[in-house]
Amino acid sequence: FPVTIGSTLWLRGGDYGLATYTSRLVGTPSKWITIQGYPGETANIQFEIDTLSSDYTIFRDIKFTNHPSMTSRFQTVSWRPPSINLNGGHHKVIHCTFLNIGHPAVGAWNAILEMYGNIVVGAGSLVDTPPPYSQTNPWVRGSGIYTDNNTGSTVYITGNIFIHCFNTGINTSG
């Protein structure tokens, strides 16, 4: 079904996973599109959302984890996917939970971001060093929020809780 400007896309309780979801939802400054967990149910996204061409979107009341095969910090698999990659546009992440996910929990590249009321636990990945790759010389990455805004985009982050991220709770540049 089509998602219209200003509407809410309700995610019913259950696990959504093992694929990268690409969002191309576009709202307006006065009518944002909301992706929200259904009241009283837990919508658990177990992989990555990539917001290519999205604008004026809100992610609210959603649990983000990785598939059970990728949740251990000490596993032999070296890469765990991030949760949300925000590529440009205007976005809000409100009252979400990020549990044992990759780096970063939320990444914002040249995006205008508001993020508040979220809990981030165990964000990070053990990534092989740049070539030549070596299992004996791993590179640890892990930020709850990572922003890289070369265009001077505004990032507003407040009232979030970060616990046991591999490196930092918040890492910004640009």
Structure description:
- The strands form four sheets. This protein has a six-stranded parallel β-sheet, with no helix packed on it. A six-stranded parallel β-sheet has the order 2-5-8-11-14-19, with no helix packed on it.
- The protein is globular and about 40 Å long.
- The chain is 0% helix and 45% strand.
- The protein has no helices and 20 strands.
- It is mostly beta strands.
How many angstroms separate the termini?
Answer: 38 Å
Q: Average pLDDT across residues?
A: 82
What is the strand tally?
A: 20
General shape: globular
Radius of gyration: 16 Å
Task: Provide the helix percentage.
Answer: under 10%
The main sheet comes to: 6 strands, parallel
DSSP strand content = 35-45%
- How do the strands line up in the largest sheet? 1-4-7-10-13-18
**What is the string of helix and strand elements?**
EEEEEEEEEEEEEEEEEEEE
| Protein structure class | mainly beta
Question: Which spans of ≥5 residues are poorly predicted at pLDDT below 50?
Answer: none
What key attributes describe this structure?
45% strand; six-stranded parallel β-sheet; globular; 174 residues; mainly beta
Summarize the helices and strands and which ones pair or pack.
Layout: E1 8-11, E2 14-16, E3 21-22, E4 33-37, E5 43-45, E6 49-51, E7 57-60, E8 63-65, E9 84-87, E10 90-94, E11 97-99, E12 106-109, E13 112-116, E14 119-121, E15 125-128, E16 138-141, E17 143-148, E18 155-158, E19 161-163, E20 168-173
Parallel strand pairs: 1-4, 2-5, 3-6, 4-7, 5-8, 6-9, 7-10, 8-11, 9-12, 10-13, 11-14, 12-17, 13-18, 14-19, 17-20
Antiparallel strand pairs: 15-16
